[in-house]
């Protein structure tokens, strides 16, 4: 995919990896649809990022997701790329898991990706192709106490992504995944924690991600994934051979 002149939707675009990806795409000449819940923040970012378009969306509301895609299409006349970045973690041991919270995490991390992908397929098919990049996680290959919900949601995303890649290849729609490691964002602060005092491990919630990779570095990898169209991109090569891969 040629980034310059393309139209790309980035979900979770108001901060962190999503915002850095939007900036990186704009710097390469893309027209970027900034999709997130924070209307006021998105409007501010729209004024800062060249050729961007702010679209408020609740990724847990399927009608809102579909409307967002249609709004972007109506505004730009086409959609060439979709970066499914919105997601959230939940720290809880198996014993602590609240089924309702599990369901919410799964809806955001997996089903919102499915719904957004479904919404862009007819548009991309009519154009002759497109690129979809789903943001996964290195934790999908790991056994981290307290992260079974997040890890399992990302493992489910692997299945969705690989199958979509096979199904949509005939339409010229390329589906890939990017696997960040720990990234210096507010991800740790924004996660749901079953026990705010003890965390899932009993040692308190780990929320300091400042020593992680920069969101800009992850954004560069996402842009590369859109450009090249391979099935998987890893922030660190060691992630390719992780246990349970």
Order of helices and strands: EHEHEHEEHEHEHEHE
Low-confidence stretches: none
Specify the number of helices: 7
| Measured distance between first and last alpha carbons | 28 Å
- Assign the CATH topology: Rossmann fold
CATH-level-2 architecture: 3-Layer(aba) Sandwich
Estimate what percentage of residues fall within beta strands: 15-25%
Largest sheet: 7 strands, parallel
The total tally of domains equals 1
The count of strands amounts to: 9
Secondary-structure content class = alpha/beta
Write the layout of secondary structure elements.
Elements: E1 7-11, H1 16-27, E2 31-36, H2 39-48, E3 52-56, H3 62-76, E4 81-84, E5 90-91, H4 99-127, E6 130-135, H5 148-168, E7 173-179, H6 187-190, E8 192-193, H7 215-228, E9 232-234
Parallel strand pairs: 1-2, 1-4, 2-3, 4-6, 5-8, 6-7, 7-9
Notes on the protein architecture:
The protein is α/β, with parallel strands linked by helices. The chain has one domain: NAD(P)-binding Rossmann-like Domain (Rossmann fold). The strands form two sheets. A seven-stranded parallel β-sheet has the order 3-2-1-4-6-7-9, sandwiched between helices. A two-stranded parallel ribbon has the order 5-8. Helix 3 runs parallel beside helix 4. The mean pLDDT is 89.
Q: TL;DR?
A:
It is built from 7 helices and 9 strands, in the order βαβαβαββαβαβαβαβ. The protein has one domain (7-241): NAD(P)-binding Rossmann-like Domain (Rossmann fold). It is 43% helix and 16% strand.
